[in-house]
# Entry
Amino acid sequence: MPEPGGQHAQVSATPAAREAVIRLRAARGHPLMFVQSGGCCAGSTPMCFPAGEFIIGSVDLLLGEIEGAPYYIDSRLHAAWNNAELILDVAPGDPEGFSLGPGGGMHFVVRSETCAPPGQAT
Amino acid sequence: MKYVPPGQAGSIVSVQPRYENFIGGKWLPPAAGKYRVNLSPATAKPICEVADSTPEDVETALDAAHAAKDAWGETSPAERARVLNAVADAIEAHAEQLAVAESWENGKPVRETLAADIPLAADHFRYFAAAIRSEEGVISEVEGVGDKRRLVAYHYREPLGVVGQIIPFNFPLLMAAWKLAPALAAGNCSVIKPASPTPWSILKLAEVIGDVLPPGTVNIVTGPGAEIGKALAANPRIAKVSFTGETVTGRLIMQYAAQNIIPVTLELGGKSPNIFFKDVAAADDEFLDKAVEGLVLYAFNKGEVCTCPSRALIQEDIYDEFMARCLDRIAKIKQGNPLDTETMMGPQVSKAQIDKISSYVDIGRNEGAEVLIGGKRAQVGGEFADGYYFQPTVLKGHNKMRVFQEEIFGPVLAVTTFSDYNQAIAIANDTLYGLGAGVWSRNYDLAYKAGRAIKAGRVWTNCYHQYPAGAAFGGYKISGIGRETHKMMLDHYSQTKNLLVDYSPKPLGFF
# Structure
């Protein structure tokens, strides 16, 4: 399991996403967590919850932390995605499922390392 | 023909500027007084406003459902069946209006809603009306006959009470029917939350069936999942929760259900294999034509289907010939106004969805997949220039690529080849999911063997995307729990009452 925020972290975030996480945490007054979803409808979406809301099991992998918010993925999904490095970003759209959103008509999205526009990831 | 968009002069569908929640048979404004704009994906322009509800509204809906549950639960099966049949009749009487509303809000072509979504929704209510009337408990003589103790076990199905139901955006009305019909048939009342991108068509349904249903049996609350999804799913006042969507919300719902110790049914998607054995091309006939359409069905409902046949596995002997026919058919898919009956593919449901689809095509390209057709946003032009249209796309690659592993939920087919039966089954089952699958062969022994070997809840054999009531639908592996569209769903919406009756006057003799 990679060290949170360490050099082996398999998740990073764009400046906009980092700012959104900081703002959302301040607005809600509690720490946050991310869980990568898969499957139907809003599959592939990073879900954002109050920290501790989603029970982490032995099947889950901690990919890293974004501004103190741990980012988890089901290890089977991680393997199916060929251990892709993920980049958290924000984009226009409503939050999916029960996820919190950064507000302002935006939602959290995830991009893969290979797809991010150059220079956007931090 | 082209239907006039809802809300415009001459449309068969009326639109109010603003919709409230449907609770206790009445339209109630959201407690916080907030509304949100609801867009059509065809134009990215507003249709109307809907309630942006808060947990308080969920509680109001639960109050209404609890007030109705005893009377409805004690209603005779014949009366419940009458109501369900009346719901079906009302849907049918307004089929065209509902089809147009559904198409305009979701983006799916009206030819699909007219021929599938709406007629199937009506039929599901009729199916469960019939099922509940034919339900019988079982009786067994547990112990003794004649002079011995006469102990009889009677089994009755009793309703759970009030259930929570959360439905997805891809078939807003049909999924509502799939969930409401068995719940009501079994004697429950429902609080149902439509998906955030598609809250309106179910409110149009409420306009149509609201008078038919006893107040409080069906309560509809619209709004964001983070606010009201949890308020419903984690609520100690629901006796069961049913959800169709993605895996993280599915797990969260199970987690809440664990805290309340209530049952759940979940349908969480798939990455369905569609296997074409070489004998499909043994003759150039109607069957081959059907098989070609069977592959192209990945574009049905613009690929926004949990069972989208999004992995085509084609036996290598026929790949070139068969794929050429399929690509020819795909190139003829007409995109455009979803309200034009000639349109085959409408826009994706939202900007978020089309952005995700585009990013997956990029992921596929970067992984080395070959784009055989499509691959980018479609330019429809005119009044639909801002609509969320994506070209029907085919990516050729191999099953270890991400585009073969994760549900894209768009018109993107991942195609690969196999050499023999064993390899076909190995590829088909090399997925986290197990919802749907397709098998195509003129050899029914082979098709049977393949169908039984595939780890999925539904294996369409020489057909695809048929959803008749009476055929159980649900997932293996992480695709979910429970089986919808079959009378076995009544078990998921009821609990067993056993009366153990002793007809013998003899004491046990212990004390």
Notes: The beta strands of chain A are 11-13, 32-36, 46-50, 60-66, 69-74, 86-92, 106-112. The longest strand of chain A covers residues 60-66. Residues 1-7, 115-122 of chain A have pLDDT under 50 and may be disordered. Chain A touches chain B at residues 35-45, 47, 49, 53-55, 74, 76-77, 80-82, 84, 91-101, 107, 109, 111-112, 114-115 (CB under 8 Å).
